[in-house]
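User: Could you walk me through two proteins back to back? I'd like the raw sequence and the structure tokens for each, with a short line separating them so I can tell where one ends and the next begins.

Assistant: Of course. Protein one, sequence then structure:
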Amino acid sequence: MEDATGNKDGRDIELLKIEAEEIYDSIKYGSETQRVTKTAIHMPSQIVAPIFNEALVGLNDEVESIIDRLTRGSNQFDVVAIVGMAGLGKTTLAKNVYSDPSIKFHFHIYAWCTVSQVYSKHNLLLQILCVIDSRSSDQYHKMNEDDLDAKLYQQLKGKRYVIVLDDVWDIEGWNLLKHSLPDDCNGSRVLLTSRFHNLSLEIRPDSKPLHLRPLTNKESLELLQKKLFAKEDCPPTLSEVVLHVAKCCKGLPLAVVLVAGILATTQQDCWEEVTRRLSSTIFVENEHCMKTLEYSYNYLPDYLKPCLLYLGAFQEDRDISIRKLSRLWISEGFVQKIEGKSLEDVADNYLMDLIGRSLVMPAHRRSLGGIKVCRIHDLVHEFCVTKAKEKNFIRILNVDDLDAFTGPSAGRKLTQISIV
């Protein structure tokens, strides 16, 4: 595809320049999941603890219960599992536990590792080691899998540690790591989140998982009001509308957040009309909230729809560089020219709009302000992939080969590209 000046080479050079500028900042490469297509751009994401400031409502007792299980009880190595359907807030709960001062005080070592559906042992080991000792990340990237395995065992040996394994889908992910985790009878723990109850029992038959419950109507209302009004009170004229929406969400935090994203970008005098179109079937007809996401997508301005779907070309549960994303949107022609604004500024506005609608989450901030990387919920990713395939915008060849391909989209072509 040609850039705004008709110069294809200029576009490629600019993208390579941006990638070179950020290589120093990147500390994780999908080394075992590289793709080869017409244009291949490697987009390494960073392995550092995400921003732990997500709203937590109604789960304080669960937080305390998990912290108690992690920091007390037997000195034998143990696995504590949080299980529940998608969208219930398992990761948010785990983040709040992980960031609690008592965890930092009790354990010598703590690390966060996102497993997800597509993973490799090399990548999982690299994630954990780079959190434990970020200063040696360059050294770790040069190691093979066996060396990483031995290094992690060495780093953990004799230490009381807690490792969070987020979004585990199958027993194999656990089997790849378990021999790297020493049991020194010193109270070390693994905190695991999964959609699958039986998985936690396979890992630890004698350890009872925490089944995350839905929010009550009151808690759903509290979360919705936090998202819509921050610390302000809900205007009396909107109280009935907001209460009705909270009840429709049926206790699913993700549904609450998504609907808040719709209402927050809609004039308040139109909320009642919007709410009339909403029903419980929109939110929770199935566990994946796909109808809610469909509704959010349909409410997007047309120029934002391809920007959102483009995120389906990134690997699930991976950080996305804002600078690279902006340049890719621009190079693909998604960003409209606005007089008096650079294309980069317009792209930034697009991103902030998607964040305001709770479809994109800021993950890390720059030291001088602004967002450095973002990510999307795995269900949003699933929706983007499904919708993009439906619109002939992205094709998934298999779980290990995620490609965008040359195909029509609203009368234009999407350059064949692989983002890993």
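----
Protein two, same layout:
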Amino acid sequence: MRSAMDCSSDESSELSKTDIDDYAEKSYLDLKAGKFVARLGSDRFRCPFCPGKKKQDYRYNELLQHAVGVGASNRAAKVKANHQALAKLLKEDHADAAATLPPCQAIALSNPPKPVQDLEVFVWPWMGILTNVLAEQTQGGGGILMKQLADFKPVQVTAVDGDNGYTGYVIVLFTKDCIGFKNALAFHNYFKSQHLGKLDWKETKQHVKDVFGWLAKEEDYKSDDPVGRFLSSNGGPKTVSELEQEMSSKTDNLIANLTQQSTKCNKMNLSLQKVMEESDLLHKRYNEEMRNMQSAARKHTHIVFQETEKLRNELVEKESYIQWRSRQLNEQVAQTDMKRRKLEEERKKNADQNDSLNMARIEQQKADEWVLQLLEKHKEEKEVAVNRILQFERQVYEKQKLELDIEQLKGKLEVVKHIEGEGVDVKKRSEELTAELNERIEEMEHLEDLNQTLVVKERMASDEI
């Protein structure tokens, strides 16, 4: 918390550009006097002006990049001045910490070459050459050799083959950086100190069983043998000064990129700080709004409580009135209960009577309908009976006429029998009268059958009526 507040207070107070140098000098003197602690150990530093940052453990070059980047950024004047003072302190008072870093210059100082060596051409990546090595030692990826050369930290060992197989030479590869060059020089100096270097090998010419070794240089690179061909296929010639220039250029570019990234980070931090300030302001407004809302809620709650209490009292009064009214109504109900029962009985009696009358009316309507149907049927049957009576009278008349005709025919037949011999064809006349008489008799019988049928139907109609 203290760091955020300190940074805010520093950035809020602005200085003019003319006062930045004076303020930076004052901060430098405070740093030098020990008022602010920047160095924690031989190679450990901290930024006393950024106590709020998570990273509090810097190396010399890291803190120097931080101080230079912030000092050149668009931050507030005091912040820039403080970091410029810190950069000055690191360069002028703690430059010894740079010796703990592994640049090529430091390696060169730990193994000071002669001025001529600075122009020597080596094979890069750094490679050492071993000769007179037994084939058994190269098997399994050269694990035996790797253990024997562990003090020089090789990356790998590779046996060199020629047209007739293994040549007895082994190439030892070191890392490509300055540490690798340091280990390669140690490898070279070790064999040289044991009189097992390249010159010793040239003089001995395989008359001993010792292993010889040296650092691969331009002469080995250009040689037309299996070793030279291997070196030219896997590396290239380079001087130490060329490598230092390349690495220095890369380091400068890295520092420039880091400075640029640091500037961007500083801008982002400034934007983040503004966002945090706006967030704090919003938080304060939110808290104020919450307090206002809570106060309004308390007032509203008090009003609601008062209204609730008032409503509760009104409800108690209404409840008392309802209970009194209920008792009154119960008494009235008790008094009118008898009347209600009598009215209910009368209503039920009237309902029964109405039901009976309705049933009677329905039955009367059915009876009326049945009487009408019966009268209609009777009318029809009467008409039928009258027609039958008339028919029967006609038949009686016809019967009587037929009986008269029969009697007359019989009389004529008797007369014809008595006038036989008087020139009349009695037989023919008798046959004609007999045929006519039989015809009348048949008609008479038919009429009697029909009459009998009508009598039966008449009797059945009468029974049905």
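The mean pLDDT is 80.

Let me know if you want the two compared in more detail.
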